[in-house]
Amino acid sequence: MTLEGLLARARLALALRRARRGAGSGWDEDYPLGEIVERALRGRGALYPRGYGSRVYGARVGGGCPPRIPVMDYYLVLAPPAFTPGRLERMAELFREPIYSDVSLESSIGGFRVRLPVATASMGSTAVASRYSLAIARGAARAGITFAIGENVATVRGYDRRLTRGHPSFIERALAYLEALEGPYGGLVVQQSVEDAYDELWNRVYSDPRLDPYIEEGLLAFEIKVGQGAKPGLGGVIRIPREQAERMRRKYHLDLEPGSAYATRYSVPATFTEDILRGMIRNMKTAYPRVRIWVKVGGMRDALDVIRVASEEGAHAVVLDGLEGGTGMAPKGALDHLGLPTLSMLAVIAEARRRGYTVDLLLAGRLYTGFHLVASMALGASGVYLGRPLVIAAAAAGARGVERYLESIAVEAQMLASALGKYSLSDLSPEDVAALDPHVAEALGVRYALKPWAPSGRGGGLAAPPERQVEPG
């Protein structure tokens, strides 16, 4: 721990003792004395976790039973059948009993061919995302999955050259990934903030001769950020040294912290209506005909409408990022209370498929296992979107750690799909999932695990859930 951190802890401990002597907590043992004291000491700085920008955070799901936020691990299980006609079909193709390694993982997501239906999250300009960006880029390329560069990277860290010491520029991130690609797999996704748009980032990328060969190969996508799970409705935010603040003052809102060597930089949230999103997708298809179009939305109540518009306008993918999504920097109130959970976004995906929307849908938000991938795809997701796990893997063992982590996801997904009698992840369906809560079962359109199961009449599998009345729109 740094000297600054030790001093902060000492000040907090002293202030807590004073508060207990002065006001006390009475018999209310759950009263948040520490939080109030920290706000008294840090003011607006207390709205953020300590160390923000240099660590990765997510919503506190709660350790109770049930947890405060309904997470997939607690509410869903996979439901393997005894009768597996799909295994018999695979056996006939192989002339032997199939095993888990016979499960096909190759897929296409958002217009890109991938070895595993996983995409790296569009991580932005925070110190923690920047520190491990090159390792994640190279590991993702070798694993044959897509790689995304998030908002404000070019504007804050530099496009061609590094504007801040020790932080790779935009082009360094892009080329670290593209030059490490092996075979026809992968794709680079570039997100643009309002402030990036002032510098015409997408135009710059589209006309960059270093990137043009990859664009010509169909390896580029532009991602519209409607919102992210950690802070839907808010813009990007990072903590920067005060000497950098002057350079950014004309584009960003800045909070200069009294007595501190740091400032907090805010990116504005883009303003959307249905017509604005439609127009944006149409304009992108005209201006950038050689790139794919992705849309990212946070845990917002009208996420299904975003999917509808994106599907109707021909976007290639929509990412749905739940409340538990990780971030390098967000207010604690947003982390814990702003947005709908990942399980809610999975219900939106399931509903979108029932309505016939065919756009690729990626689920994000505290996903990190092969189970998460299999369950998500069974309920209609085209794949999953991972951020925080890749940062942790890169911190632990660099690019090779990212590769090994993704390998573990791949093998685990193969094992689980094989147990379900499915030999391609695209064959997974709602019959492969059961819910441990009747309300979750109804929301997702799957069987409630504790309800007696009627024979399906198809040689195995769950009985189809009863049809539900769906409101139009």
Summarize the structure.
The chain has 473 residues and is of the alpha/beta class.
Structure description:
The chain is an alpha/beta fold. The chain folds into 2 domains: 3-47; 85-427, Alpha-Beta Barrel (TIM Barrel). 40% of the residues lie in helices and 14% in strands. The chain is built from 19 helices and 16 strands. The protein is globular, with a radius of gyration of 23 Å.
Separate helix tally: 19
CATH topology of the largest domain: TIM Barrel
The residue ranges in which pLDDT falls below 50 over 5 or more consecutive positions are 457-473
Head-to-tail CA distance between termini:
53 Å
CATH class descriptor name of the largest domain = Alpha Beta
Please state the overall shape, judged from the principal axes of the Cα atoms: globular
Please give the order of strands in the largest beta sheet.
4-14-13-12-11-7-6-5
- Global mean pLDDT: 88
The CATH H-level superfamily of the largest domain is: Aldolase class I
| Number of strand segments | 16
Strand content is: 5-15%
| Largest beta-sheet characterization | 8 strands, parallel
What portion of residues is helical? 25-40%
